[in-house]
Design brief:
Radius of gyration: 23 Å
Number of strands: 10
Shape: elongated
Strand order of the largest sheet: 5-4-3-6-7-10
Number of domains: 2
Order of helices and strands: HHEHEEHEEHHEHEEEHEH
CATH architecture of the largest domain: 3-Layer(aba) Sandwich
Largest sheet: 6 strands, mixed
CATH class of the largest domain: Alpha Beta
CATH topology of the largest domain: Rossmann fold
Structural class: alpha/beta
């Protein structure tokens, strides 16, 4: 991608995702994520409906009438985007690569974050850590994150989610909101996922493509593993083969969803070629309701 084409792509994603963040997720993001805690602001005279546990008994004793403490939420958050940039992200059969979907979703979340004065950082990973961008604020910083997502050429082809989470836990000491954006085509990441979930507000975002779930009936096709380069020729005219392919895909999805439920992690499932606005809106509203 030359510099002119890259600039056009960054500008297009900037316009589209900042618009989505402002028009669709304004208010939802703020309500869906808690700050770091509560900070004392002032005391004021008790009013009917105030919680009894908020009464400041020392001030009440001095003034001879009840006073309550007021607190304000410490809003500033650190938002980390852990984005899979492995070989499997260069796959897409619906007019969009998984890598492109990841860039759009990451940009939308980043613009939502800076709108609320939160910091945004990036960890791009394959079977190793490919890029780390320290959390910071501002539109200029988000545009750098978008540029990294679009131009990062990974040196590794595989996917090591466990390694990415271990690295994230080392570099992020304070509690953060972490969006783990990947197709989750990896093994042995359950334990690191649990550890990260306990320390942080971890949200897995699963990217998939329609052809990873169902194959068309078109006779012989070559399937290439984009991470290992292994090539397999299959006969898709076989109904038994297509059923087995679907069964395995459904089994992987079910196992992954059970894991997310077990560790109580909210998750989103997004598909290339389909709008991510509706599933993200449902996600934000569900979290708002619980908060």
């Amino acid at each position: 991608m030359d510099a002119k084409e890259l600039l056009k792509k960054i500008r297009r994603i900037h316009i589209r995702t900042s618009h989505i963040a402002n028009d669709f997720f304004a208010g939802h993001y703020h309500s869906a994520f808690k700050g770091q805690g509560m900070e004392f602001e002032e005391v004021r005279e008790y009013q009917p409906g105030d919680e009894i546990r908020r009464i400041d008994w020392n001030v009440t004793a001095r003034q001879g009438k009840p006073f309550v403490k007021r607190f304000r939420e410490e809003r500033e958050l650190t938002v980390m985007l852990l984005v899979d940039v492995s070989g499997s992200q260069d796959f897409g059969t619906a007019g969009q690569l998984k890598r492109e979907l990841a860039a759009e979703v990451g940009a939308t979340l980043a613009f939502s974050a800076i709108k609320n004065n939160d910091k945004v950082g990036l960890i791009g990973f394959s079977d190793r850590i490919e890029r780390y961008v320290k959390p910071d604020k501002g539109t200029r910083h988000v545009l750098r994150v978008i540029r990294e997502l679009l131009t990062l050429e990974a040196t590794g082809r595989g996917t090591d989610i466990a390694g990415a989470l271990d690295y994230f836990n080392r570099v992020t000491r304070r509690r953060a909101v972490a969006f783990l954006i990947s197709d989750f085509l990896a093994d042995r990441y359950e334990r690191p996922l649990q550890v990260a979930r306990r320390r942080h507000d971890l949200i897995p975002i699963v990217l998939s493509d329609p052809r990873e779930v169902e194959l068309p009936k078109v006779r012989y096709i070559d399937l290439i593993d984009s991470e290992t380069g292994e090539l397999v020729t299959v006969d898709t005219s076989s109904a038994a083969f297509r059923r087995e392919y679907q069964r395995r895909a459904a089994g992987s999805t079910e196992a992954r969803q059970k894991l997310f439920k077990k560790i109580k992690a909210d998750a989103m499932e997004l598909v290339t070629g389909q709008s991510y606005i509706e599933p993200m809106t449902r996600f934000f509203r569900a979290r708002e309701a619980r908060m």
